[in-house]
Write a structure and sequence with these properties.
This protein is an alpha+beta fold and about 230 residues long. It has 3 domains: about 35 residues; about 90 residues, Protein of unknown function (DUF541), domain 1 (Translation Initiation Factor IF3); about 110 residues, Alpha-Beta Plaits (2-Layer Sandwich), CATH 3.30.70. The strands form 2 sheets. Strands 2, 3, 4, 5 and 6 form a 5-stranded antiparallel β-sheet that branches. Strands 1, 7, 8 and 9 form a 4-stranded antiparallel β-sheet that branches. The radius of gyration is 35 Å and the shape is elongated. It starts with a helix and ends with a strand.
Amino acid sequence: MKNQFIWMGTVIGFAIVVLGFCLKSGIEAFVQKDRFVSVKGLCEMEVKSDHVIWPIKFQEKGDNLGHLLQVITTKNKEVVNYLVSKGINESEISISSPDVYDGISDRYSYNPSVRYTVTSVITISSDKIDLIRNLLLQQIDLLNKGITLVNDYSSQPNFSFNGLNDIKPQMIETATKNARAAAMKFAEDSGSKLGKIKSASQGTFSISERDSNTPYMKQVRIVTYVDYYLND
């Protein structure tokens, strides 16, 4: 019986030792798994706009509203014919209803020099970026035709880029590579080895003007967020 107790004690002691090693290994593995580094990967790309909306705004002033509306109708046709002659398709041109301002009915306007101001807006929506840019430089042609252009914020061309889906994969790949390079440098400096990805987030794409002087050039930007495990 005494030998049996000794044998059982030996087995239990051995089991406790094995369990201790298992717990130690498990704790070390858990701690090791919890070690990670968070990095960002940036990618920027300059692209040319592929669409533009250009409102051409002009005005006529006078006291005879009927006559002003006839003049506006005639000049609308002149502007459209001019644009078509320069290579713009009629399907890319739209004409808004004229906006009529009556100075007498405006209680904040006293003794206006003319009663009516009629504004017309002809809008071009086109993918012909270079053609529109040239026309913007040739607006004096319309002035020479007696078209009184209004140059304000609402009449500025709006350039946009719609080809994001075509460049997304390349930009995400580049941003991810940059994130991994940053993580590898961190691991090297800390005496660790870079492990697998713990989690990753694509981030949000942003499109902005490259600068105020070339609104047709856009800068596309993406930042990815990646967590990597670190191994000893």
